Each structure stands twice: as structure tokens, then as C-alpha cells.
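FW: tagging you since you asked about this chain on Friday. Here's the raw sequence from the shared folder, copied in full. Didn't touch anything.
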Amino acid sequence: MIRFVVSPDNRVVPDLAAKLPGRGMWLSASRDVLDSPRTRQAFARAAKAQVSVPDSLADLVEAGLTQRMLDAVSLSRRAGQVVCGFQKCREWLTSGRAGVVIRSESASPDEFSRLVSGRRSLPVVTVPDRVLASAFGRDRAVYAVMAPGALAQRLIAEHERFSGVAGRPLPDPAGVSKEQAEL
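HL: got it, structure written out here
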């Protein structure tokens, strides 16, 4: 679910942290819901006033959720709770220190299978390519492993909301999409 509030100038604003003042209006984290023309009417009805809804509301929410995932990974990095790179990730996976596996959208399915071999029960979060690269200050980063804890749970929750709003199927963690499995 995503919370929205009405700003003092009667604009609808996404409140991704759910901390802004005012009466919140909650919508499902789905691109279909955010792009629906009925959503504009629902905001006006819930606010009991005329409100201005940005044309690119879904894109605005998607960008905000991407930033929140980046913030979670960056904070984990500063706390020493996440590592990047195939070898370091493999070491954390084999030693049992991993709580969640993070992979970029462009990650190779075969290499991912080698990385997580024997540890397929861990949650996998697929993020846009720029999230890992920005969090680790690199041109390109493909894999990261985060320790279990509150930051890992936050990343998983943000990823679930992002997946609904992204409106595009993210790569399957096992490397095989549903369409390929049906062939």
C-alpha cells in the first residue's frame, strides 16, 4: 500500500515513508491502480475537495521507491551489513551471514545460479541497475548480499511495493521467467 496526502496547495503527494502530516489516502501498490482515471476521482472524493493529481503519478512513485531501495542499501553499506561482488557475496552465503540476496536487473541467470547454489531459500530482491552501482560508488555492480535485520526487512518491503508499481515484470530470481517455463 502507498499513502498519499494533499499538500497545502491542493496537490496530491506520495508519502512513501507514511510520515507526512494530514489525512492519508491509501492505494494499492499497483501501476494499474495508479494509472486509472478513477483514481483521480477517488482522491477528490477522499479529500472532499478539488485536488491536482500529477499526470505522471505512477512514475513519480516508482522513482521514489527506487530511491528508498537505494537508501536502504546505502545505509546498510555504511553499517557494514552488506557486501558487493561475486566472491564476497559467495563467502557470506556459504558462512550463513546472508539474510537477503540483491541482484541487478541485468544480472546473468547462469551466474546468479552459481552464486546462490545451495542457498535458494534466501529472499532475492531484484533492483534497477543504478541502485547497486550508486550504493557502492561503482560504474556497475551486479550482486550484493545483506545481513539479516531491520534494514533487510525494509529493503524487502520496499521491493514488494516497487514490483507492483514498476508495471514491468522483473527477472525471475531463478533465472527462468514464467513464459519460458511454460514453453
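FW: Residues 57-78 form the longest helix (22 residues).
HL: agreed, and The CA atoms of residues 92 and 169 lie 28 Å apart.
FW: great, closing this out.
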